[in-house]
């Protein structure tokens, strides 16, 4: 019995122990934060915030204010090295082709529609391959309100007012007075004629 027990103990001594569970190593939070930032930075196709746009060059507009039917001179240096561009605005009669000047800028002249609304308008320049490369502003003045046609008036006589009325009354009185004098003279002449005729008749009867 004792001999049989010894080998059993030896087998128990050489028996392998069960493997221990190795604890997982904790990842530092700082590393996770760095990875998150890198992932956000590498995200493709992120749209810019609304209301923002690429800065554009300036279109010089002369004069800055114009009446409907007037003209504007446009120039810009936005289209470097190009030989042409197009400027347009809702108040223009048509799009304007810009041509190079001696200083290298592109320039052209626009005509304002006679029916253009008054207020501030925006002019935009499209370069080759760069639409909306430059912008500028100008003002369309409100059309003048039509004035009423004055009615013709009679010329005022010298010494108008009461003086003119007095002259008119005096003129009428003189005409009436002249007619009365003429009538009296006519009656007197007729009386003299009758008297002479009677005398002539009496002289003939006496003979």
From TrEMBL:
Where along the chain is composition biased (Low complexity)? 141-156
Keyword Membrane tagged: yes
* Name under which the protein is recorded: Uncharacterized protein
Q: Which residues cross the membrane?
A: 175-195
Does this UniProt record's set of keywords contain Membrane? Answer: yes
In this chain, the stretch annotated as Disordered covers 1-22, 141-172
Highest taxon of the lineage: Bacteria
Q: Which UniProt keywords apply?
A: Membrane, Transmembrane, Transmembrane helix
